[in-house]
Write a structure and sequence with these properties.
This protein is mainly α. The chain has helices at about 10-15, 20-35, 40-55, 60-85, 90, 110-130, 135-155, 160-170, 170-180, 185-210, 210-215, 220-225, 230-245, 250, 255-280, 285-305.
Length: about 300
């Protein structure tokens, strides 16, 4: 039998066949898209859209709705990228973030700074002039508190999670004031739901990756108390609070009975995952909390929009 030899290209051959300009350009675009965290932007836009729709009185102004999403999306993408710019040294020390475009060296920091600053500034101006000044003001609060309060506090105190939940809870408020041009008690109900949701969500992530965060010098609760007791307690406490607050849209005439039943079920599911973590003390259980949180948020806001009063 005649043997067949397969010759693999060596490094010299690879050097003579560099990537095409098209492939380099495509990879470059992919890196910039990754820098903006599109999945997180999508989640932010879902809550912003829900806030706009729920705050609309009468027929929906679809053009204003589109402007709101464009301005919010640009700002969110820019802020998330600027956060990576500010934390590029931290990301380089954590296994889960080392391959992001900045720590991996695929995008130069100055390029990322200019690109993301442009997105953030244009998004804020877009909302201010094409939607209304109040929506531009609220989103500016998100930018300032997220980048200049929450981000530096992650290296100093475990209270950063609580403080970071404030800008994270404001997107539905942006949508609400974009639709109505004013704040109201209903907008703060949406804020409270998202605020309480973020705490178990963020703590579950920190619990899962606490060794990574410790290596990077971040002062999150599971890092300060490695046994996880305080983290598990906070997760359950906030799930209980969210279970109750999640029912308020019915009492405030934002949504109806269908939403109330959905909030009972989804909130109970979220709470059950927290209780399971309290008993199991495992990373696997913390992942269940994370998965439950990722299901809770879109389900609760989509159901609220469907069952709007």
């Amino acid at each position: 039998m005649r043997s067949t030899t397969v010759t693999l290209p060596d490094s010299r051959e690879a050097a003579t066949n560099p990537p095409s300009r098209v492939s380099v350009f495509v990879r470059r675009v992919e890196d910039y898209i990754e820098l903006t965290k599109p999945r997180m932007v999508l989640m932010i836009l879902i809550t912003t859209a829900a806030g706009f729709y729920l705050g609309t009185q009468g027929a929906v102004n679809w053009l204003l709705f589109l402007h709101t999403l464009i301005g919010s999306g640009l700002t969110a993408a820019g802020v998330l990228g600027l956060n990576q710019y500010l934390e590029r040294d931290v990301d380089s020390q954590m296994e889960r973030t080392q391959q992001r475009p900045l720590p991996a060296g695929r995008i130069h920091p100055i390029e990322a700074l200019l690109f993301c600053a442009f997105l953030t500034g244009s998004g804020m101006l877009y909302l201010t002039f094409l939607v209304n000044p109040l929506s531009g003001f609220v989103i500016s609060l998100i930018v300032v508190s997220y980048l200049f309060v929450y981000t530096p506090l992650k290296r100093k105190t475990s209270l950063c999670t609580l403080i970071g939940a404030i800008p994270g809870a404001l997107p539905p408020v942006v949508g609400w004031v974009a639709a109505q041009g004013r704040l109201s008690s209903q907008a703060w109900v949406l804020f409270a739901i998202l605020f309480l949701w973020q705490l178990p969500h963020s703590l579950a992530i920190a619990y899962i990756y606490r060794e990574d965060y410790a290596n990077a010098g971040l002062k999150l609760l599971p890092v300060i108390h490695p046994d996880g007791t305080s983290t598990r307690r906070q997760i359950v406490t906030n799930c209980v609070a969210l279970f109750g607050i999640g029912l308020l849209p019915t009492l405030f005439n934002i949504a109806g009975g269908i939403y109330f039943l959905a909030a009972l079920f989804v909130g109970g599911m979220f709470l059950a995952s927290g209780v399971y973590l309290q008993k199991a003390h495992s990373v696997k259980a913390a992942r269940y909390v994370l998965y439950a949180s990722l299901l809770y948020l879109p389900l609760i806001f989509i159901t609220m929009a469907i069952d709007k009063i």
